[in-house]
Specification:
The protein has 375 residues and is α/β, with parallel strands linked by helices. It has 16 helices and 16 strands. Helix content is 40%, strand content 20%. The radius of gyration is 20 Å and the shape is globular.
């Protein structure tokens, strides 16, 4: 096992904990938000921008990097860290979700998935062994087991078959896994059925991975159902291993998961919102395109000290966005990523002081969206 996970502080009044993960490319503290760098770039940002936004770890995508430029090319170029000039920790996902959501004419077999590329329609096949091969070539610090993703809603019988397949593939990933400089995480599935979630968690945990992810959430189900599955599943994951919730990205959702003991999160929400003019503030989200900002000389968020808020007004950012200037996307993304990393910093501080519930209750963003924590 290449990484070392340590719980630094267990909060007294919730299941939240502050932790630290050590990787070959440095440490990061948890709970943490992982910016998504799908194609070896966090869209519009340089690695220096990411560092200044206080992000310690980023995510790359096996499916996309396999198709373009190709994992073997990246390996020849010295691995993903050197290729993109980011020398902090990197997590790569297995490609399972992308094969499900982007792969055309997908056909699932017991030993993998056949699909057509969303780029040019060429035929490809992913298997657990192939996914591990790609991720080992990329050289990420944390890699994920190949799982089968299903849509919502899915009937029980189909979900059962898929859950069993995910466990079978997880075993195959463990057998194919060779590079012990990388940490391999297993993924818990089970759809929206508690008995299948419990079964999947127990099966995946029995394989003794370096960490565990909960997948198959935020796929279109109602939020209350997502919370129910999340809160039901988390206790089955060992306390001495990192717990990673895949694809969770709304601030209120992240905080609720933290309360129940989750450690790691990733989502395209901050970057995608930024490119569409949606900006996160302590008072809620704003749309910078609104005409009320034409003469607004204030920063996006007066409480934020990111580069964008220190130097630019809402009026200027609106002008850039309306004018379709590329700089708008970059400045917006800097702010949103900083907002998320600062949120996690404040969350870790609150856990350390055993005051997480007070922090959440007093967080204006939550008060202006919905209440997510009940004493």
């Amino acid at each position: 096992m290449s990484h070392n996970f340590k719980v630094i502080h267990q909060e007294k009044y919730t299941r939240a904990r502050r932790g630290k993960i050590t990787t070959p490319h440095g440490e990061f503290t948890t709970p943490t938000f992982i910016p998504v760098g799908t194609q070896a770039t966090v869209k519009t940002l340089t690695p220096q921008d990411i560092t200044k936004c206080n992000a310690d770890i980023i995510l790359g995508n096996s499916y996309h990097l396999y198709l373009r430029p190709g994992h073997k090319i990246i390996e020849e170029m010295g691995g993903l860290h050197r290729f993109m000039n980011w020398y902090g920790p990197i997590l790569t996902d297995s490609g399972g979700f992308q094969v499900f959501s982007l792969g055309l004419f997908r056909k699932v077999f017991s030993n993998g998935v056949r699909f057509k590329s969303h780029i040019d329609g060429t035929d490809h096949q992913f298997s657990p062994k192939k996914s591990i091969e790609i991720q080992e070539a990329l050289g990420a610090d944390i890699i994920m087991a190949f799982d089968e993703c299903i849509s919502y809603p899915s009937p029980y019988k189909h979900t059962l078959t898929s859950t069993e397949l995910t466990t079978k593939w997880a075993r195959s990933c463990k057998e194919a896994y060779r590079n012990k400089n990388q940490s391999l995480f297993g993924i818990v599935q089970g759809g929206m059925f508690k008995d299948l979630r419990e079964r999947s968690a127990n099966d995946i945990v029995s394989l003794n991975f370096d960490g565990y992810a909960i997948g198959g959430l935020s796929v279109g189900e109602p939020k209350e159902l997502m919370y129910e599955m999340l809160e039901f599943t988390l206790p089955f994951i060992p306390c001495d291993k990192p717990r990673y919730i895949m694809g969770l990205g709304e601030p209120e959702d992240i905080l609720r998961a933290v309360v129940h003991g989750a450690d790691m999160f990733d989502c395209v929400i901050p970057t995608r919102n930024a490119r569409n003019g949606g900006l996160f503030t302590h008072n809620g989200k704003i749309a910078i395109t609104n005409s009320c900002y034409i003469k607004d000389d204030r920063p996006i968020d007066p409480l934020c000290d990111c580069y964008t808020c220190q130097n630019y007004s809402r009026a200027y950012l609106r002008h850039l966005f309306i004018s379709r200037e590329i700089l708008a996307l970059r400045l917006n993304t800097i702010h949103n990523i900083f907002f998320f990393t600062r949120l996690m910093e404040k969350t870790r501080e609150a856990i350390e002081m055993d005051k997480l519930s007070d922090f959440i209750d007093n967080f204006e963003y939550i008060n202006n969206t919905k209440k997510i924590y009940q004493k």
